[in-house]
Amino acid sequence: MPLPVIFILITVMLDAMGIGLIVPVMPDLITEVTGGTLANAALWGGLLSTIFAVMQFLFGPLLGNLSDRFGRRPVLLVSLIVMAGDYVVMALAGSIWLLFVGRVVGGITAATNATASAYMADLSEPGKKAQGFGLIGAAFGMGFVLGPLIGGLLAEYGTRAPFWAAAGLSAANALFGYIVLRETVTDRIRRPFELRRANPFRALKAVANLPGIGPLLTIFFLYQLAFMVYPAVWAYFGQARFEWSPGMIGLSLGLFGVMMAVVQGGLIRLFLRKLGERGTVLYGLIFDIVAFAAIAFVTSGALALILTPLAALGAVITPALQGMMSRAVGPSRQGELQGVLTSTNAIAMILSPLMMTTVFAAFTRSDAAVYFPGAPFLLSMGLMVLALFLFMLRSGSRVSA
User: How far is it, in rounded angstroms, from Cα 40 to Cα 44?
Assistant: First the structure.
């Protein structure tokens, strides 16, 4: 595998670690700086996730369009350096407000996922873009593995230790990228920077108006909204239902991430070859509906550890949808498209933590009419049912046309 591709995959992995790293320690960290109950900590956690996502939404198209004009290399390297500094701030934060500052900066640097995806699109042949995005998904899965595992293991040394480790990894990857990364934006595909294209709302509208893109963006959004239930409430869900420690929460998320990496890095190719992109999306939606329903009602911790990695078998949806949309736009708009996808994902990350943690708190408070920690997963199941309906409606209209 070429060294620049390895760098891109490591970068995406570190972006994912920025989410997964803090998940196991988040309940204890928030309690440490604010005090309060687990339900209240979940609400604070939702707010922190939301501010992170707001920054991704605002800066995703900006960084994507900057990379279309000035190149992928400078955008990626500068963001990694800033990311390393942000982890240092998080490690030293002694109040909830400093944690908010850290999440603001972290959301901006994590918006480089759009630039990393655009780089992968630059290198991929038109018919193999979904496979390239599968590698991106696999790297994200590995980050989802390593983040919770590192966070859970290093939590034994304090709630701040994971952030020091992440700062060192980000700085080391920036140095690696400086050495190996070559620029893929040539004068043939370079576009002038226009501020209006960097506006997330304008960029979203411009891309959504392309033929066939709008419905796929909606389905992509609904999937991300449902999927975010894992980083949003899993740590709180694990404590409330199974009395899991941070280490066990990290292990369970690690198992999920391992399977995500296997699915999106390898099995996705089998699905695409056997089912095609449309069939792959259809399978993933149906599978996730069943998986969310099962997790919502599971009461055994051992069974939950079995279901957690199995649930990742539905993670073929994202690369298949990305492949369908990437083929629909020209090579000069890959950065813009990936920036829009980053912003769409960020909107889901804005809304989902607030939705999921609010539902979780409502069903786990001491005065709750019904104690049901799995309620957020039923909400995710409903969102997937809606996505399936829209996808079938789109496919039916295309056939009838």
Answer: 6
DSSP-derived letter for residue 112 is T
Q: Rounded distance, CA 192 to CA 371, Å?
A: 55
Q: 45-64, pLDDT tens digit by residue?
A: 778 877 877 887 778 777 77
23 assigned to some structural domain: yes
- The CATH number of residue 172's host domain is 1.20.1250.20
Q: Can you give the pTM of this predicted structure?
A: 0.66
Q: Do 315 and 263 form a contact (C-beta atoms < 8 A)?
A: yes
151-188 pLDDT, tens per residue?
Answer: 777 777 777 777 888 888 888 888 998 988 887 666 66
Decide if 393 is inside a domain: yes
Name the domain count of the chain. 1
Contact 122, 184 (CB under 8 A): yes
Contacts of 226 (CB under 8 A, 6+ apart): 288, 292, 352, 379, 380, 381, 383, 384, 387
Note whether residue 332 is domain-resident: yes
Written as one string, the DSSP assignment of 352-383 is: HHHHHHHHHHHHHSTT-SS--TTHHHHHHHHH
Residue 328 φ/ψ, nearest 5 degrees: -85, -10
